[in-house]
Design goal:
The complex is a heterotrimer of chains A (521), B (264) and C (314). Chain A is α+β, with helices and mostly antiparallel strands and 521 residues long. Chain A has 16 helices and 23 strands. Chain A folds into three domains: 108 residues, 3-Layer(aba) Sandwich (D-Maltodextrin-Binding Protein, domain 2); 118 residues, D-Maltodextrin-Binding Protein, domain 2; 219 residues, Dipeptide-binding Protein, Domain 3 (Dipeptide-binding Protein, domain 3). In chain A, helix 14 runs antiparallel to helix 15 and helix 15 runs antiparallel to helix 16. Chain B has one domain: Orthogonal Bundle (MetI-like fold). The C terminus of chain B is likely disordered. The chains are: A alpha+beta (521), B mainly alpha (264), C mainly alpha (314).
Amino acid sequence: MKLRKGLITIITIALLLLVMVSGCGGKSSEKAGNSGQNEHKILTVGMAFAPDNLDPAKGWNGWHVVKFGMGETLVKLGRDMNFEPWLAESWTKVDDITWKIKVRDNVMFHNGTKVTGEAVKASLERTLQINERAPQLLDIALIEANGNEITIKNKRPNPSFISALADPYAVIVDVAAANTMGEEFTMKPVLTGPFKVKEYVKDVQVVVERNDSYWEDKAKLDEVAFKFIADSNTRMMALQAGEIQVADNIPAESMEAITKTGAFQVMSESSVRTHMLIFNVKKPGLDDINVRKAINMAINREDLGSKVMKGSGIPAVGPFPLVLPFGGNELKGYTYQPEEAGKLFDDAGWKPGPDNIRQKNGKKLEFTVLCYKKRPELPVLLETIQAELKEIGIKINIANMENISEALKGDFDASIYSLNTAPAGDPQYLLETMFRTGASSNFGKYSSSNLDALADKLKTAFDTGERNSIAREAQQAVLNDAAFAFLVYPKTNMAVSNKVNGIVLSPSEFYMLNSDVTVIP
Amino acid sequence: MLGLIIILGVVAAGIFAPYLAPNDPLKIDLNQRLLAPGKQFPLGTDHLGRCVLSRLIYGIRISLTTSFIVLFIIMTISIFVGTVSGYVGGKVDNLIMRLIDILLAFPGLILALAIAGMLGPSIMNVMIALAAVHWVGYARIIRGMVLSIKEKEYVLAARACGTTDGKIIFRHILPNIISPVIVLATLDMGHLIVSISGLSFLGLGAQPPVPEWGAMLNDGRPYMQVAPQLMLYPGIAILVVVLAFNLLGDGLRDVFDPKGTRRA
Amino acid sequence: MKGYLIKRVMYLIPVMLGVSIITFALINLVPGDPAEIILRAGGVEPTLEAVEVQREELGLNDPVYVRYGKWLWNILHLDFGQSFRTGHPVSQEIIDRFPATLELALAGMLVMLSVSFPVGILAAIYKNTVMDHLSRVVALLGASLPSFWLGLLLIYYLSVQLGLFPVMGRGGWSHRMLPALTLGLGMAATYARLLRASMVEVLGQDYIQAARARGLKERVVILQNALKNALLPVVTAFGMSFGHLLGGTVIVETVFAWPGMGKFLVDAIFNRDYPVVQGYVLFMAFVFVFANLAVDISYHFLDPRIRLERGRSG
């Protein structure tokens, strides 16, 4: 009996191994989506990130709502980072603090209500009230509406006002509808875009359908489903299985496998995004600038960009990517010199303990760094950095978060983070939201009077050359304080089935679906 | 028997990991990422260029020691509680049994998940959570055993002779429950290993760069298509070890408990 | 029957009370002061004053029994608190996701039944043949196979390589297939063996021999006489392993991105969304306890010999 049982087990394990090994060489399948549906054109898109809800004024929801082709702002940011009219027909600067904006006369909300100057005024005021970034960036003192025209007065001169209007929190919504619908508005917002919500299941999917009363060319697609697939591997597999035809945020490792099939192309574009480490400068250990500098010097950014990200990341210098006119070319950043980092530690009194972790006055250099997996390269970057920092005597524990923006509002030592540094092509944005003392996204509690003064100065500078040079000065200030470790500038990428036409990647990451997108049957 | 041989082999591999592992399990080499199995790396490398085989071998230490420690804690608590409850009886027994009923009203894995989640992700917390949840079933069984042994003639006789309670427990009761308890423990070892690696797979247990099998599976998931070995081998490792423990448990049960009484 | 039911339900009251106490106590496992945690979750810097205000607001300065009483009062009114992350009531979030999890659990059970019944019965009838041994091996494998790995293998081979099923999400039958298999197969292995053992025992009983002697068809004997009696231990075991099924949904939902409560729980854990974790645990304990109640009652129906005296089966 014993013997037989043993024999059976051995056979089973052998069979199992055989199955495993033989399966490895198999071929992946390609299924085309929606063939034969000439009449009804449907596209399915897999997205890494999901909005909290569909009210564009809240938090970062606007970014999603604009990508979904539902919401529109007054001003649109072109591919070359120039501003184009969208819901606004034109705008003029009256004086340093006054703007006149003419709203298009032929725009209707999804419910058929006309978009008037009054409606735009109400919408902007709603944004100011609801969105935490808006008051700072728009800096509006008052809005007057007169027919199709609105006049906006800023509190102070605001050179980046037009770019602040392009930010998706300023999507124009029907405020009257929002007020009567209450909570339902967050599920079925009344907007102006070429598509409107058909179905929304939180964290699962948004299905949008063509808005037949759109003010410009009507959408070519009948329906688009955006499925939220946080796991990058699942997203890739869904793409290859034909369940989705477009997938955003492709891991570098998968690009080859995906293009090899011939059924997809990977679109890739330099972005204005930066992957970075945020230090909580109030935490013991990290409050020492020498520690932060040493960390900066122990990171091999070349390796991160070329090896971890397989070339789809450019080694970072300062906060702004090099594609921006004020990006980090002339800045003095940190290079990889682990020995120097060690010396810096020794001089500052951080000595290796028995476990090789440096310590001083009983405080060990052991930190928990937050991480999230929705951007597939981040965990890999962080694990690499973990090993690099171990070399210089810092112990890193990695804590994975499901919702990083919530986690950053809480208590943490440090975090890896990815940020669109200049969505509207203007340096003011990052300074105001991330670097200024007490700013809404200044998670690490960084505070520098020097930087604050430069941010103030930028606020009053209208000349582009001057703005760029102030921006560079501000970046250098942040670098000198080593309040962050800027790692790499990633390229944005998206895998698109060959049957899909018209999707355009924008460096700003604002836009995705538009009227022109279509599917070849 | 085969189960025992596999287990001994695995334990030996764990102990001699530094000699068996071809490479440093933690050494990151970005030039050698996601390599297919080859000469230098018999099972290939992971997403950071670490040797998969070496990580698997070192992973034995993590999986076996953690589950063994949890098992030990469970046994200590449950033998203590079960014996006290069964032997003392009365109100104490009643109270303990109510507590056990309450704890059994939770689906085990879910309570463990919640406890580990509340404590925060770490392998230590996962161990605490599993121990906190799993002792209950054992305590109940042990109490049952103690109750029946308590009524046996030799115990009654010992008590009639004026033997102290402590002596009765250590001389007569514990020796009689220890072997069935060991069988139960072996049967559960596989279950514990799966639980620990499962929680690590969810990201609650072992944190990077610790080479834990469940965590390795989770890490390998994004590279399923490019490097399927990352997802295959850790799973096989778990399967083989768990299978071995289940075989051993089955065999032990045949020996000690031919009637095949099932535990709750 | 009625008396038994009443007694059985009455018994649940102290148990559920205990369950609620433990769930309430869970929050104390979180390192740190709950007031501080809530402040931080809301993005407020926890200054001494802010913490004090929050403590007062939460009633944390009240004695623990007062806090528990208030909490329980809310729970009895189906108020599980609000999710830190979404700000919505936890009860609503759970109810929204419950159908998905229920669907998965039922599909998993279906797989389990449709695999374990034929295998278990056939193994019993053809005892000690190749069929029986094979089922034993498969059962052992099934019991040792971690479900999260099985899920990955199914995705890799059946979805990615062969393109037979969708890789994730909820939808029609094709979406249900792999998650249900993952959830059901491991359990099916155990049940097949259990049913086999039970059938073997029943088939050896006198009344089965008698039925055969009366010339009843073998099929009738097995399906009508033997199976019904062999089911008893299986049903009991099912009540116990229902918890296993519920726990299994957490892992399966994570692997397959199934938008149910289990995935929600895991997300909540990583978001440190403690009210959600508490609400989920309490809800699941409810479901588990009532499932066991249902099992006990059905046991009662299956075996009229058992009356009042039967205790709890869990």
